[in-house]
Fold this sequence. Notes:
The structure holds three protein chains of three kinds. Chain A is an alpha/beta fold. Chain A has nine helices and ten strands. Chain B is mainly α. Chain B has a domain of 209 residues. The longest helix of chain B has 27 residues. The radius of gyration of chain C is 19 Å and the shape is globular. In chain C, helix 1 packs parallel to helix 5, helix 2 runs parallel beside helix 4 and helix 9 crosses helix 10. Chain C has one domain. The chains are: A alpha/beta, B mainly alpha, C mainly alpha. Chains B and C meet through helix 5, helix 10 and helix 12 of B and helix 4, helix 9 and helix 11 of C.
Amino acid sequence: MTAGGAPLLVAERLTRHFGALTAVNGVSLDIAPRERRAIIGPNGAGKTTLFNLITGSLAPSAGRILFDGKPITGLPPHVVARRGLSRSFQRTNLFPKLTVLENLRLAAAADGRGSYSLLGGIARLPGPLLRAREAAEAVGLTDRLQEQASRLSYGEQRQLEVGVALATSPKLLLLDEPTAGMSPEETLRMTRMLEGLPREVTLLIIEHDMDVVSSLADRVTVLHYGEVLSEGSFQEVKADPRVYEVYLGSG
Amino acid sequence: MIARLAAFLVLLAAAAAFPLFAGKYPVTLLQEILIWGVFAMSLDLLMGYAGMVSFGHSAFFGVGGYVAALALTAYPGTLSALALPPLAAGLAALVIGFFSIRVSGVYFIMLTLAFSQMFYAVAFQAAWLGAEDGIVGVPRASVVGINLAQPMSFHLYLVALVALGALFLWRVVRSPFGHVLQGIHENESRMQAVGYAVNRYKLLAFVIAGMLAGVAGALYTQLVGSITPDAFLWTTSGEALLMVIIGGTGTLGGAVLGAGAFILLQSLVSSYTERWMLILGLTFILLVLFAPGGIVGALRGRVGLRA
Amino acid sequence: MPALPDLFAQALNGLSYGVLLFLLSVGLTLIFGMLDVVNLAHGSFYMLGAYAGLTLIATTGNFWLALVAAPLVVGGIGAVIERSCLRPLYRRQPLDQVLLTFGLIYLFEDLVKWIWGGRIRSIPAPDLFSGSVTVLGATVPSYRLFVIVFGLGMAVAVWLLIERTRLGSIIRAGVFDAEMTGGMGVNIHRVFTGVFAFGAALGGLSGVIAGPIQSAYPPMGASILIPALIVVVVGGLGSLKGSLVGSLIIGQAETFGKAWLPGASMLMIYLVMAAIVLLRPQGLFGRPLK
C-alpha cells in the first residue's frame, strides 16, 4: 500500500477462468490516488484480461473490485466508466468515420446529461465540446480536429485512442499499451505526452517498453501466468531475481 | 444549410400545389410516395444512423394503421387521427424493442421479422380486426378544425404532416442524441466503454422510429379508407428497406427518393407488364451488387457532393 | 379434451411438419454458420423444389425420381446464385447479402408464376403411400408416416455427414472460423458454394416431400420462411442440434395451436419463440452472444 490515504482502486484476489485456462489468478492491487502504476509481464500474463475485469467488460470468476471505496464488481462497462474509470485499448478502437473532434466530443458527452436531447443542436452543449478540446490539447491533436479519424497516421490514431479515454474526465485512466506498434520517435512523443497529463488523473498502464515504464511509473506490478510475481518501484522490481528470470532476462 | 432549407421549402410548395395542375391519379401516387417516404425515413433513422437493420418495421406501420382505423371509426377526430396511432405504435416498439435490442446483427433482423409476423398473425385471425378483410370504410375525420373529407384539405394535411416528420427526423439526426446513434453505429463497444448506456439509446431510437412509422400507417389508412393485415406482412418491411437502399442509407432524403422510385417503378412497370415483381427483384439485386450507395450515393459520386 | 387417438394423430401431424421444417432450417443454419448470410430466399428453394417435383412427376410419372432429381436441380440453382450474386458481396457488410436474398424472393416467385401459373397445383402422393393406416386407433395418411421416417432418416444422414466425415469437419471448421478453414489447405470458395448448394438442395427436398401434403402455390416459399426462421431463432443460429429440437417444438406448437386455439392458431409459434427468447436470447443451443 502506498502512502496517501484510502486507495482509489482496490482489487481483491481477482480470478478469471476461461474453461481450463486461468488467465488471472488471485490478483490483488491497491492503486493510490494520483499514483502512476505500470503493469508489466510477458505476453499471456493476463494483463489485458485484468483490465477487462476492472472495467467490467468481463465478469470475474472470483474476487472483488472497489473503486473510490465502493464495489464495482459485476457492473456493466458503461456504469463503471461513469464512475470515473476510463480505458484505452491495445488495438486502436475509435469511431473511424467521425472527425477527431467528434470522437472526443462523443466521449466527453458520455456523462449522459443532454445526450438524450432530440432537438437541440450540438453547440448547445458547450461542456463536452470544451472537454473535447482540452483532451485534444493534452494528446497533441489540436491542429487535427477536423480530420477524419481513419485518415490519421498510426501514431496519431494512438494519440486519439488515449484522448478518447481522457475526454471522459476520468479519475482513473487505464492505458493498454499506448505505445504498441509505435516507432521509437512516436514512443518518445507518447511518453512526453503521458508525463504531461495532469497529476489528478491516476494512471494504470500496461506497457512493454521499459524506458516508458521507468520514466513514467511510480510503482510497477509484474504479472506472470496470471499472478502477481513482484511489486515495487522500478528499481526494486528490476532488482528482483525472479523478475529478471521470467521477464527481463528473456528480453 | 440555407440552400438545403430553400430546396426543402421549394419541394414542399411544389408538393402542396401539385393537385392544382395534376389529375387524380398522379396526386394519389404522390400521396402514396409521401406516406411511404415517412415510413422509409423512420426506418432509415434505425438503419442508416443507428446501424440497426430491422426487418419488422411493418409492425409499427400496421399498428398505426389499425389504431387509426379503429379510433376514427369510433370517434372521428383529432385525437384518433394524430395522437393515438403514434402512441400505440410507440408502445408496440417499446415492447418489441425491449426483446430485440438485446441481440444484434442477423439475430436482430430475425427477431424483428418474427415479431412483426406475430402482429400479422393476430390481425389475420382476430374477428374484431376484421380478420383477413381488415377494417374498411374508415371515414376521413375533421382534424384540428379542418374537414379532411375535402380532397385538397386532406392533401395539405398530408403534406404538412410529412414535412413535420421530415423536419423532426432531420433535427434528430443532428442532435446530441443523433450523434450518439452514429457513435453506436460506428463502434458500439467503444461507446459502452466511454460510458454510454447503449441499449437505452437504441431502444429510444427504436421507439421514435416506431412512432413515425405509426404516423405513416395512420396516414395510409386515412388515404385509402381501409387497412388490411398485409400492412403487417414482413414483405412490407422489406419494401421499406428496399426504398431506403434504393435511395441511399443514412441520408433521410434518400429514403423519400427511394420511395418515389419504388412506387413510380411499380405503377409504370405494372401498367406495361404483369412481370412487375420480376423486374423489381432484378432491379434490386443489381442495385445491391453495383450501386450500394443508392441514388444519393450515385449522385454524390457523379456530382462530387459531400455529406 | 380431445380423445387420445386424436392427440396422437395431431402429434404425428406436428412431427411430419417439424421434419419439413428441419430440412429447411438445417440449410438456413449451415448457410448462416458458414457464409454469415441469413438466406431469406431459402423459402424460394422450397417452392422451387415443389414445382420442379411437380414437373418431374408429371413428365416421368415417377415420384421417386422427382425426389432425387428435384433437389439436384435446386442445388444447382443455389450454386449459380452463390457464385453469381453472393460471392461479390462477401467483403461487404453482411446486411447487403441479406438484402440481396430478399430481392431473390421476388425474382423466384414471379418466375414460378410465369412458368407454372399462379394457381394452386396439387401433387399426388406416390402410389405406395397413397392410402392411410391406423396407428393406435388414429387414422393417419401413410404418406405422412413416410415423411416422418424419411425426414428423420435425413436428419441422421445430415448429422453423420457433418459430424463424422472429412467434408463435415471442413464445414464445422468453416462455421467456426472461415480463416482457419483456409489454413487447412481447403479452397474456401468451393466450400462456400458447396454448402450453399447443399442447403438449397435440402430446401428443395423439403419442397418435394411437402408437395403431396400442402400442394404447390407461388407464395408457399415466403410463408414457410417465417416458421423456418423461428426454428433457427429458437434453436440457436449455427447449431444442428438446435435446428432439430427447434423444428420439433415449432412443428408441435403449430399443429396443436390449430387444434386447440383455432381462433389464434397462427399466434402459437410466436408465443413459443417469445418465451424462449426472453429466457435465452441466443436460442436453446446457440453460442452465448457477445
